[in-house]
From TrEMBL:
It comes from Candidatus Nitrosotenuis uzonensis. PANTHER family: NITROGEN REGULATORY PROTEIN P-II, NITROGEN REGULATORY PROTEIN P-II HOMOLOG. This is Nitrogen regulatory protein P-II. One of its GO terms (biological process) is regulation of nitrogen utilization. One of its GO terms (molecular function) is ATP binding. Pfam families: P-II (PF00543). GO terms for cellular component: cytosol. It comes from the Archaea.
């Protein structure tokens, strides 16, 4: 099993989740956060609309799922296609090994819990 963690721009979250549903991923965990990377940060306006300043952070989403090894390429491609704008700051995808997994409710382990 592999854990796929995608850090994407917040406005691409809906597209990425829909792509994962089409890829028949069993479930996802989404964390909303802020970060600094290669992408441009948004320009904000002051309360009266006259002042402009750059936001300190980008608003990003981290989408995490665990899949069988055979689905890695399909899932990674689905995320890249849904999240890509072709600009710096689109995000990153990390794939790591899952040594063991357990379902708390059923107390089952292994691939059966996906």
């Amino acid at each position: 099993m592999k854990r796929i963690e995608a850090i994407i721009q917040e406005d691409k979250l809906g597209s990425v989740v829909n792509a994962l549903k089409i890829s028949e991923v069993g479930g996802v965990t989404i964390t909303m956060s802020k970060g600094i990377g290669a992408g441009e940060r948004p320009i904000l306006r002051g309360s009266r609309g006259t002042a402009k300043f750059e936001a300190a952070y980008n608003r990003i989403a981290t989408v995490v799922t665990v899949v069988e090894d055979s689905k890695i390429d399909m899932v990674v491609t689905a995320i890249m296609n849904a999240a890509s704008t072709g600009k710096a700051g689109d995000g990153k995808i990390f794939v790591t090994n899952v040594e063991e997994a357990f379902d708390i409710a059923t107390k089952e382990s292994g691939k059966n819990i996906l």
